[in-house]
Amino acid sequence: NHPKDWKQxxxxxxxxxxxxxxxxxxxSLFCTLTTLYPEYDWNIKDSRKQVPSHHWEDKATQRKxxxxxxxxxxxxxxxxxxxxxxxxxxxxxxxxxxxxYPSLFSALETLYPERKWDIRDTRKQVSFNYxxxxxxxxDFVERLKTQLNIKGDEDWFRVSVEQLKAGGGGSLFAKYxxxxxxxxxxxxxxxxxxxxxxxxxxxxxxxxxFIQLQKVFPNCEIIEEYL
Length: 227
Hints:
mainly alpha, 12 helices, 49% helix
């Protein structure tokens, strides 16, 4: 017998042959087969014509799907997912899993919590849904805060849209349309004044150059106004 031979066998046929007592012990026929015949390499797409929706409810089953996907596409580390599209996962039968998460990145992050995930390294594009989660927005802002050497809230007033996008926040800006709105989502406990972000002369480039010079000459006192 070969696992693919089971594709034409229905649940009703097993019941008709007196197998209902066995089937009742498992959530599906596929689960029955994989449990009773662990020596075979089972793939639900090859072995079943239709997959019951509850089959994908178990996170271990979801993870097994992605384990097989990674093997098939030679994915060794999180960064290897960067060139994998949502469509590719769907074409391999992963649509029922993806429908349970706001994004492919969210699915991977949930199913492999032991790995270190960074959306900038693992996805070429970030979906709008990803930024619906305030925690995701805050995580990005915290990284940008370190990158731009933000020490106090007032430093944010001098950050330009170009700097935000250069830091990987293009899709985030497209969703919220201003740094003011982004910070309100990231830090709702703070009182942000919209007018503070609307200065015509932010001197964002001057501040950036000041930070770079501080890095190059860490032991020298550099006065920004003289740049």
